[in-house]
Design a protein that fits this description.
The protein is of the alpha/beta class. It has 8 helices and 11 strands. The longest helix is centred in the middle third of the chain and has 14 residues.
């Protein structure tokens, strides 16, 4: 039997990560996979330290890469706000933190109980910037997957939990630990007050995918953000479906 915990898109939210890890610690896991976007949030250094202590493989996410090589700021309003906020968080990281981020991998293979691999990535096998939704056209998904095929393919980035069958592939997104969306931008950003993760169990050809949600002290996270001095803190806090 193979039992693997799946976490993704922590986004510098140690409150949410600790709540998820407390539940996973009761699961007698064989391993844990992190699908990227670890530090981009109000507790960047603390979250990096916690993930580093887990000693689990980590996939490179788009915001992880941003911390290493900041791209030109986008022109859309929400994109500009997010880049200015993330630049503030990035200033908290030291070279040791960035050296750890450089160890993240583009994708990795996770052997299942029958020896076949599950392929793990952030957005898609082609790019950490690709979004996969339930509504993504098959032709677009085929382009994203390219020549990479496995019985199970696991990604994050969209901040939405998802199971989707495509050809002979079961695609899994465990959702976001630290920043799960309830409404998809660019129309607006709405963040759900919960933490999301997944559990994969494979035994003698039987596959079980459990998509889970749990609670944590969201108010404490938002109070920390408001007191942090980060730019656009009130806008960021108001994106959450709670009032602080």
């Amino acid at each position: 039997m193979t039992r693997i915990g799946l976490i993704s898109d922590i986004h510098g939210n140690l409150f949410a990560l600790d709540a998820v890890l407390a539940e996973l610690e009761r699961e007698n896991l064989d391993g844990l996979i992190c699908l990227g976007d670890v530090a981009a949030g109000p507790q960047p250094r603390e979250t990096i330290a916690r993930v580093r202590d887990l000693d689990c493989p980590v996939v490179m996410g788009n915001w992880d890469a941003w911390f290493l090589d900041r791209p030109v700021s986008p022109q859309d309003e929400i994109g500009i706000l997010l880049h200015e906020i993330t630049a503030f968080w990035a200033e908290e990281l030291d070279e040791d933190d960035r050296a750890y981020i450089r160890t993240f991998v583009p994708r990795l293979a996770l052997p299942l109980d029958n020896g076949e691999p599950a392929v793990c990535f952030h957005g898609s096998p082609s790019s950490y910037d690709d979004f996969i939704f339930a509504t993504t056209p098959d032709d677009e998904l085929r382009r994203m997957f390219g020549d990479v095929r496995a019985p199970v393919m696991i990604g994050g980035h969209a901040h939405l939990q998802l199971l989707r069958r495509f050809e002979q592939v079961l695609f899994v997104n465990p959702g976001s630990v630290g920043l799960p969306f309830s409404d998809w931008w660019p129309d607006r950003v709405r963040i759900a007050p919960r933490a999301e993760y997944g559990l994969l169990v494979h035994e003698q050809g039987r596959l079980h995918i459990d998509l889970r949600r749990t609670t944590y002290d969201v108010d404490a996270l938002l109070r920390l953000a408001l007191a942090s001095g980060m730019p656009h803190a009130r806008w960021w806090v108001d994106c959450w479906e709670v009032k602080v």
